[in-house]
User: Which sequence fits this backbone?
């Protein structure tokens, strides 16, 4: 008889994984640490996941998949310009960062860790979305023919997320809100994509 998986425990495990990795880094985090922080036994955790990599892969897939679903939803409005699309996408990243700082920091770490890449199913989705955005941008004159799909992907994802987390560090000690940067980020990306 299969053991029942407790959804509340799974939620605690995922939250504990993100929190533990944000506090200790990916390499220094252990299953034992995650289990302790989730208030579950290590044995329970191993019944559901093969190990830390399996657990983190699932979290990474969930986040990446939700991002591409968001992109598809934003594109479903039959847009003939990419500016409102880019603006909405950036605004959503800022809201996510403000409302879910631990999750945002966790995914930022994964974005810069070479052990985590998109599964093939998401690579196909990503390529399709990038081609759609580029097609709209080419027709509207907002994207240059010279911009590659890699460059487009970088500026929409990595650049925005990196900037948000750079600002979070507040190296100058200034009292500025990340919300103030929405027009700057949108216009910066549009200028880069037009080159």
Assistant:
């Amino acid at each position: 008889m299969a053991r029942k998986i407790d959804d509340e425990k799974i939620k605690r495990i995922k939250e504990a994984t993100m929190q533990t990795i944000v506090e200790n880094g990916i390499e220094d985090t252990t299953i034992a640490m995650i289990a302790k922080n989730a208030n579950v036994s290590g044995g329970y955790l191993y019944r559901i996941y093969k190990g830390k990599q399996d657990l983190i892969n699932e979290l990474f897939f969930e986040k990446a998949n939700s991002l591409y679903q968001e992109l598809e939803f934003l594109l479903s409005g039959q847009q003939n310009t990419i500016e409102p699309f880019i603006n909405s996408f950036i605004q959503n990243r800022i809201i996510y960062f403000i409302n879910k700082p631990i999750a945002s920091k966790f995914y930022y770490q994964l974005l810069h860790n070479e052990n985590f890449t998109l599964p093939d199913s998401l690579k196909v989705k990503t390529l399709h979305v990038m081609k759609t955005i580029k097609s709209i941008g080419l027709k509207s004159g907002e994207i240059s023919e010279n911009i590659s799909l890699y460059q487009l992907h970088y500026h929409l994802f990595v650049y925005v997320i990196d900037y948000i987390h750079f600002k979070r560090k507040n190296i100058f000690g200034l009292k500025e809100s990340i919300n103030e940067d929405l027009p700057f980020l949108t216009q910066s990306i549009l200028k880069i994509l037009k080159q």
